[in-house]
């Protein structure tokens, strides 16, 4: 396990479904003991095997909208008819105690988070700690092969995922870093190098 001593990091990773983001994030969390995963809130029901507080905080639509009104979310978005959001208190708690925070967000959520951080002066600590990375497939054709080989989704669902992936990949330039995941080992080495380098980046107010 590696422990990094310098400044804390708020690391946001986005990728279309099937690009390898989950595998890469799991490897980061297994290697870096200073890195904590940010658990999001959602209004969708739990899937088999999912645990409240570990995979997501499963809350009602009513509670979700109450939390929006109270300003509890750093970012929130609607995906496939359900609401997803990141609690500001949870992220701040990690950063203030010297822990890095890893967030798994879609492009919509990452956009909202950037807008929030740039608009609010009181979030200067989070703004200085922020780094975002987009994981892209080598091509949409390669992504389609990966999705079909998983055998998890019917053809119409794969079609929707590919349509969404094209729109998401078109926004790669909004991110500080881009990794094209053609080879998993190479991509992981790049990702972990970014994490280490970000700890030695000079933060400017």
Characteristic terms for this protein:
4-stranded mixed beta sheet, alpha/beta, 20% strand, 5-stranded parallel beta sheet, 205 residues, 43% helix, single chain, Rossmann fold
Instruction: Give the low-confidence spans.
Output: none
Radius of gyration: 17 Å
Oligomer: single chain
Distance between the termini: 31 Å
Q: Percent range for helical residues? A: 40-55%
Per CATH, the superfamily of one domain is P-loop containing nucleotide triphosphate hydrolases
CATH architecture of one domain: 3-Layer(aba) Sandwich
Count up the helices.
8
Task: Describe this entry's structure for a reader.
The chain is α/β, with parallel strands linked by helices. It has a domain at 10-38 and 100-198: 3-Layer(aba) Sandwich (Rossmann fold), CATH 3.40.50.300. The chain has 8 helices and 9 strands. It has a 5-stranded parallel sheet with strand order 2-7-1-8-9, sandwiched between helices. Helix 6 runs antiparallel to helix 7. It is globular, with a radius of gyration of 17 Å. The chain starts with 9 loop residues before the first strand and ends in a 7-residue tail after the last helix. The mean pLDDT is 90.
List the helices and strands and how they pair.
Elements: E1 10-14, H1 21-31, E2 35-37, E3 41-42, E4 57-58, H2 61-69, E5 73-79, E6 82-87, H3 88-96, E7 100-104, H4 107-119, H5 124-129, E8 130-136, H6 140-150, H7 155-169, E9 177-180, H8 184-198
Parallel strand pairs: 1-7, 1-8, 2-7, 3-4, 8-9
Antiparallel strand pairs: 3-6, 5-6
Helix pairs in contact: 6-7
């Amino acid at each position: 396990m590696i422990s990094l001593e310098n400044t804390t990091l708020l690391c946001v990773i986005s990728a279309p479904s099937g690009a390898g983001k989950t595998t890469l994030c799991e490897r980061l969390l297994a290697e870096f003991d200073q890195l904590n995963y940010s658990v999001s809130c959602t209004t969708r029901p739990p899937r088999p095997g999912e645990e409240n507080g570990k995979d997501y905080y499963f809350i009602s639509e009513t509670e979700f909208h109450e939390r929006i009104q109270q300003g509890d979310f750093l970012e929130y978005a609607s995906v496939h008819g359900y609401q997803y959001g990141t609690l500001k208190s949870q992220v701040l708690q990690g950063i203030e105690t010297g822990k890095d925070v890893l967030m798994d967000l879609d492009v919509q959520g990452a956009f909202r988070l950037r807008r929030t951080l740039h608009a609010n002066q009181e979030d200067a600590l989070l703004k200085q700690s922020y780094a975002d990375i987009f994981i892209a497939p080598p091509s949409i054709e390669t992504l389609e092969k990966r999705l079909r080989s998983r055998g998890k989704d019917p053809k119409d669902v794969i079609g929707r995922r590919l349509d969404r992936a094209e729109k998401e990949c078109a926004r790669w330039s909004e991110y500080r870093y881009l990794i094209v995941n053609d080879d998993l080992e190479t991509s992981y080495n790049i990702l972990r190098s970014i994490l280490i380098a970000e700890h030695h980046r000079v933060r400017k107010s």
